[in-house]
Write a structure and sequence with these properties.
mainly beta; 22-stranded antiparallel barrel; five-stranded mixed sheet; globular
Length: about 750
């Protein structure tokens, strides 16, 4: 089952290589400098957008891109303490140059997003609401996981369940409606199966995170009805202008005793680059305000100062190689990641016969191989892009057991998932006002479940798709976008005679789901300071094997899951609008949206038990979600920025006339930032209203306001840049509960914590 998916990818590689070899492209060079306030800017990020290549400026603010084919390119430059800038360069023969003079600014103003269109482009040129967060910005965000680090973005919340299993929620949607990608490809994990399952990514190894709010089916396929989060880790390096370059990052956090580190080194020659990386994290149980907390299931109370069983231990190591020339570039990368973390619950206790512990432990191991190719073509093609990844993922669960002999955690089950995801994109050479990309996509998953408590059957899921993404320049200030995609999705279960569940020993079933999805969008420049955008998209998601055929105890969450074999695919219609303004010292964005989902699949507690565990059944209904995201930023001084943002979502089960459960309340953010080229200071209030609009199984939460503070310094010595920051999260040690927390009825959110971050760029 593993070897068959490799055949179509191999079939793609040969014609792509032949096409690239036929391209008559010669190597050119782009050189330039980045300066600010009359001095060279060291460590600035420079991005060659069309070729998706990045450089970092040296001690004289210089940068260089070699092996660039003739054409027109946009170059983006950004640096801490300065406003970002974009320049257009025409490359014909020899060497082209670009010079940036950045102005001081507390915020970069423009961000580059790689995940909402076939090629990277500034956020204000996207048809949908998007956001991007860089590695440096991660240091200024509260929390440990990548999901927590982006939860202050408009429309982005986080569902927490301790330290490791935190997952982004976009506009009230998560799990199988929001796709988490790594480097634009699927990760091969099972994080959507249960709130106790973590996404196997360490925030320290993340270079950038892109968030696309709203349907993104055309480019990425099913599971994007609510949007996507693309975590960029750059397994495959790019050739740098410096022989040795890289990053070292360290972090400590008192709220959990966290100590973590990550290093990434790239050795570059004239045409090749070799990458080696390693990282690790160790944390103990999360601190909360001391007090007596009552378990809602048993009614037992416990005096706690930390959330039981919220430790997190992880480590990773990676290698990568890339080669570039006049033909383009090709590279491979690999990464090994392991995580061992706890699931909170009732801790082991003297009254274990009456109130048994409900904590557990999960061990993950993921091996990833990634291929990336970008080839310069000829004729009607401009470039050919091939991306593929193969993931081998192992996941084991160990529920806590206690008896007269003591405490143990025997293994309950084991998941083994293998997934191949590949995308081939053919970028058309612009013809007049028309440009676009056509592509092929495939995703094949093989899942095996073993152990005393198998949650579902063994299965193979196969997805194939073809898509087109076209743009038309109507006028200098107006662009239209249209997309079309056809998806084939087939799930096949396999009888497994060794299964401890008699149902899965003989279950031999298949489900086929085909769909056509489409999108239309428009962007209009209204004068020099205003931009309006509008998009409408039809999206699709096939039910998962778990939603169809689950029949077993989920040890980590303490529920018995039951699938519904008659479930059909979800279809959604999403409408997004956005108005953005930039008036020099003031900027704003307002984005209302509406999303209708037919046959919306959800899990609910039936009210009965199997094997003394509550039963969670999967069912379908129709859903409607509407809301808004809004932000405004005022810059009274070049080094000072004042930001206010808010978001709200109203989600309704329209079949039954009741709210959908676990929807975030009205939220707000107030932030003041001071940022020069050397110093940083920030203070923010994160506020949330009371959530009393509840669905089935949900409970109310009170409103809250939490204050965070930060101070940092940036030191430059020759070509080395050191960034050091100290943060205090939840300054007043507020006791508060978040509506999306899985354990909100038992314990609150983390208490006060101090974070120390150090990052070295070389």
């Amino acid at each position: 089952m593993v070897k068959r998916p490799l055949v179509p990818v191999a079939g793609w590689v040969l014609p792509v290589m032949l096409l690239a070899g036929a391209a008559a492209a010669s190597a050119q060079t782009i050189t330039g400098t980045v300066r600010g306030a009359g001095r060279p800017v060291v460590g600035a990020s420079v991005w060659l957008l069309e070729l998706d290549r990045t450089e970092r400026t040296g001690s004289a603010g210089e940068f260089r891109f070699a092996a660039v084919p003739a054409g027109t390119y946009r170059i983006y430059a950004s640096a801490t303490g300065f406003a970002s800038a974009t320049d257009t360069v025409q490359v014909t023969a020899g060497t082209a140059t670009a010079a940036f003079e950045l102005r001081e600014s507390a915020v970069p103003l423009k961000a580059i997003v790689v995940s909402a269109a076939p090629t990277a482009r500034p956020a204000e040129e996207q048809y949908q609401p998007v956001a991007s967060r860089s590695r440096v910005e991660f240091d200024n965000s509260a929390g440990t996981s990548f999901a927590e680090k982006i939860s202050d973005l408009p429309g982005v919340t986080v569902r927490g369940n301790g330290s490791a299993p935190s997952r982004p929620i976009l506009r009230g949607l998560g799990d199988n409606e929001v796709l988490i990608l790594e480097n634009g490809l699927r990760m091969g994990d099972i994080a959507t199966y249960d709130p106790a399952h973590a996404t196997p990514i360490d925030a320290m190894g993340v270079a950038q995170v892109d968030v696309v709010r709203g349907p993104a089916t055309i480019l990425y396929g099913p599971n994007t009805i609510g949007g996507l989060v693309n975590v960029i880790t750059n397994f495959v390096p790019t050739v740098a202008d410096h022989a040795v370059s890289g990053t070292v990052a360290l972090e400590g956090n008192s709220v959990s005793g966290e100590v973590s580190g990550y290093t990434n080194t790239i050795l570059s020659g004239a045409n090749s680059a070799f990458r080696v990386s390693a990282g690790g994290l160790r944390s103990s149980d999360i601190r909360i305000p001391s007090g007596s907390y009552t378990d809602p299931a048993s009614g037992a109370s416990y005096n706690l100062a930390r959330i039981p069983q919220t430790f997190d231990h992880s480590g990773e190591v990676g290698l990568g190689y890339a080669y570039q020339g006049a033909f383009g570039s090709i590279g491979i990368g690999g990464n090994h990641y392991e995580m061992n973390y706890g699931i909170p619950g009732v801790p082991p206790n003297p009254d274990w016969e009456t109130v048994p512990p409900t904590t557990s432990r999960i061990a993950q191991r993921r091996n990833t191989a990634e291929l990336r190719g970008l080839f310069n073509a000829g004729g009607w093609l401009d470039r050919v892009k091939l991306d593929a990844s193969y993931n081998d993922y192992n996941h084991a669960e160990f529920p806590t057991a206690e008896d007269s002999t003591g405490v143990s955690d025997p293994q309950a089950n084991h998941f083994h998932k293998r997934e191949l995801n590949a995308v081939l994109q053919l970028e058309q050479r612009p013809t007049g006002a028309l440009s676009g990309t056509i592509g092929l996509w495939t995703d094949v998953q093989s899942l095996t479940i073993e152990g005393d408590q198998p949650l579902g059957p063994n299965s193979t899921t196969t997805g194939l798709a073809a898509f087109a993404y076209e743009e038309y320049q109507v006028a200098p200030g107006t662009r239209l976008q249209g997309g079309l995609r056809y998806d084939y999705n087939r799930i096949r279960t396999h009888p497994y005679l060794q299964s401890t569940d008699s149902v899965f020993q003989t279950l031999d079933a298949s489900r086929l789901s085909n769909a056509v999805t489409a999108s239309l969008g428009a962007i209009r420049q209204i004068g020099p300071s205003l931009t309006a955008s509008f998009s409408v998209a039809r999206s699709f998601r096939a039910p998962t094997v778990q939603e169809l055929f689950a029949n077993g105890l989920d040890a980590a969450s303490g529920t018995y899951s039951v699938g519904t074999a008659t479930l059909g695919p979800e279809t959604g219609t999403g409408i997004d609008a956005s108005l953005k303004g930039d008036f020099g010292s003031l900027s704003f964005e307002v984005s209302p949206y509406l999303n209708h989902i037919s046959h919306f699949i959800y899990g609910f507690l039936r009210g009965d038990t199997i094997q003394d565990f509550p039963v969670r059944q999967f069912a379908a209904t129709d859903a409607r979600l509407f809301g808004f995201e809004a932000s405004v930023e005022v810059r009274p001084l070049p080094t000072v920025a004042l930001r206010a943002s808010s978001d709200y979502v109203n989600a309704q089960d329209t079949q039954n006339g009741v709210p959908l459960p676990f929807i975030p309340p009205l939220r707000g953010l107030l932030r003041a930032t001071y940022q020069s080229r050397s110093w940083m200071g920030m203070a923010e209030w994160r506020v949330a209203a009371r959530q009393a609009r509840l669905g089935v199984g949900d409970t109310p939460t009170a409103g809250y306001a939490v204050m965070n503070l930060g101070l940092g310094v940036r030191l430059v010595h020759r070509g080395l840049v050191s960034e050091i920051s100290l943060h205090c999260d939840n300054v007043f040690d507020r006791l508060y509960r978040d509506n999306l927390s899985v354990i909100k009825d038992f314990v609150p959110q983390p208490g006060r914590g101090f974070r120390l971050n150090y990052e070295l760029l070389y």
